Amino acid sequence: xxxxxxxxxxxxxxxxxxxxxxxxxxxxxxxxxxxxxxxxxxxxxxxxxxxxxxxxxxxxxxxxxxxxxxxxxxxxxxxxxxxxxxxxxxxxxxxxxxxxxxxxxxxxxxxxxxxxxxxxxxxxxxxxxxxxxxxxxxxxxxxxxxxxxxxxxxxxxxxxxxxxxxxxxxxxxxxxxxxxxxxxxx
Amino acid sequence: xxxxxxxxxxxxxxxxxxxxxxxxxxxxxxxxxxxxxxxxxxxxxxxxxxxxxxxxxxxxxxxxxxxxxxxxxxxxxxxxxxxxxxxxxxxxxxxxxxxxxxxxxxxxxxxxxxxxxxxxxxxxxxxxxxxxxxxxxxxxxxxxxxxxxxxxxxxxxxxxxxxxxxxxxxxxxxxxxxxxxxxxxx
Lengths: 186, 186
What we know:
2 copies of one chain form a homodimer.
Chain A: H1 7-15, H2 24-37, E1 41-45, E2 50-56, E3 63-69, E4 77-81, E5 84-92, E6 98-100, H3 106-117, E7 121-128, E8 131-136, H4 137-146, E9 151-153, H5 154-160, E10 162-163, H6 175-182
Parallel strand pairs in A: 5-7
Antiparallel strand pairs in A: 1-4, 2-3, 4-5, 6-9, 7-8, 8-10
């Protein structure tokens, strides 16, 4: 989740010099804008869900004056690529040896499973040890079904996941991994 | 668009006694919840996009104290049904003879076209003359390409669209129309 004044975002700006100050969310928004422009895919980040408590209309302009962040029950990004429904989330961890599953809400895991069951593609993009990984939803669900652990070892992410190298356009070409996994014959 | 204190919503509550006080957005959220529960489809309304200007943390709880509504560049609802990407919006008009195209932003029309081009299904659900209609994106784009008019005549909606009758579960079974149009062989 990306709270506008949260610490995670600012911290990642400090540690990740390689991406020139762009955090994971910005890199993905930039990549999605590139995919849209080049007519490769139509994928957007969903707005942050908030609960509006109070609004005012000074000078005839509607202003929200009290609202709270809500916990999302779906993943942050979705859209369409090559006729397929795409649904994913971006996660960062400072942990070096494992990815804590507390980063994913139970509702989000259930959503991921449902998307796959209905014929969509779901995954996480994980920023960890200063590297970007694509980890497919099937591998996440398989890990959870076969382990009691509350975190996914980094070794599992290295083995099952796919590193996405930072580049210029698009910054994180995650659709290349989807081509590899889901459209190999093309 | 559904501004929390907009007039449209309250007005539709007054005129549309038949749906027992539920406006179009509530009817669709209810239908989507039913589809989700019965494992028929995974479709959600996107949160309203807002621009957060100011937050505070009284008693250690993060509160948004100043924010504005933003104009959405996509449609409000999306998800997956039967392996297909679904993307649509809900619109109400008090106009009896035609549906003003000013109800749809130019960005939203472009988005609709892109979704269809990439193999998805896009449409509008229109509440007009106290009736609910499914109007397919292809018919909307075809109308715009072949007409100079700034509104779609009600006759066109009656001819090309499909009426969705209010019922108990789901309240508005719009997937039935998609079955008819896109999964006829089943």
